[in-house]
Amino acid sequence: MKTQGYFPKRYFMVLGTFLLALLLYVDRVCISVAKEPISEMLALSDKQMGWVLAAFSLGYALFQTPSGMLSDTLGPRKVLSAIVAIWSVFTALTGAAFNFISLLVVRFLFGAGEAGAFPGMSRAIYTWIPLQERGLVTGINFSGSRLGAAFALPVVAWMIDDFGWRFSFVILGFVGVVWAVVWFLFFRDKPEQHPYVSEHEKEFILSTRQQQDMNVKTEKINMGDLLKSKNIWLAMGQYFCSNFTFFFALTWLFPHVKTEYGLNTMEAGIYTAIPLIFGAFGNWTSGALSDVIYKKGNWDRSRILPASIGFFLAAVGLIGSIYMDSVEGAILFLSIAIFGADMTLPSSWAFCVDIGKEHSGAVSGTMNMAGNIGAFLTALAFPYLQSWTESTTPFFVVGALLNTIAIVIWYNMKPQRHFSTY
Prior knowledge:
It is a single chain. Helices cover 80% and strands 0% of the residues. It has helices at residues 10-33, 35-42, 46-62, 64-74, 76-94, 100-114, 117-128, 134-163, 165-186, 199-208, 223-227, 230-251, 253-260, 265-295, 299-322, 327-356, 360-389, 393-410. The chain is globular and about 60 Å long. It is mainly alpha-helical. The chain contains 18 helices and no strands.
């Protein structure tokens, strides 16, 4: 029998998903940094670039639930390896775009490829992570995405200046293929299948993760089964609101700050990385708070309270940014907004695992589908509202209102009720 090591092997799985989340957002945010040279070379307007940014979110949204179901059926080892390799190909092919339509198609397919990442992670978390650790683990994973985006903004700006935007996308695609190979070689769908997990750790995981409820359905499910659940509709609604705020940071924040305050590319990259770093801290804070509350015996509050605090801060940050005349002031309040928006993520994804259990991939994919409809609208709302009103203020007001509505939604969600019963 293997003895318990100093470092539990399940945390290597967490390291792998953390690095995946980091890669996910490095690949995703680079299009925002490359907006100016791409627009110049392909002769694209801001509205056309809005559609390019939105195409990713549409592909990402449409393939969420199917890819989540694949992870539930085939397991996250095969599915995550395959989808990361696929989206990495389309990351590289972004550098081959030659006009508006080709760029639109490649970014849609890139989004479809990325769609299975977080649902696949949710399925792995259900199998590998004890219930009392899920909040923090989810926060760690999402902090990887924020740190990846923050890291990408200045680094990709440097790469584009030195290597050009086309070759920069090829480099990022190669990195993704490497991750896919390593994941397939070393990960296993279940801890009991892994040769290097000790018997002590296997026993601990199996005894402390959520067990399948024999009173609820365990057969294959379809989209109709999911959409009968009030819990799932509420999760979708609040996640739509969260993504409307956060995806501004991934799409229009960089070009907005660069143009509004007359910054050069590197300056804009550094300033717009700051809210994303705050987002990572928001994930850690919320994840840790969720686990602390859960360990005190209040499962419902461990999900609802961190998310509600987050949405409140997001609303305050968006409204405060409207009144700032300096780039420093605007970035400060937008950092508060992104910190708050990201505080909602550990609760949201832990909630999906709570109510989804053996179907957590499909449940989280359905929630993320709705969230990325919000991201799709963000990419279009910002340039169109600005064009119609000649001001960015209406966009931030809409975002604040959505965050306020999300607080009300959370107080109607029930983490302890399986999606088939509520």
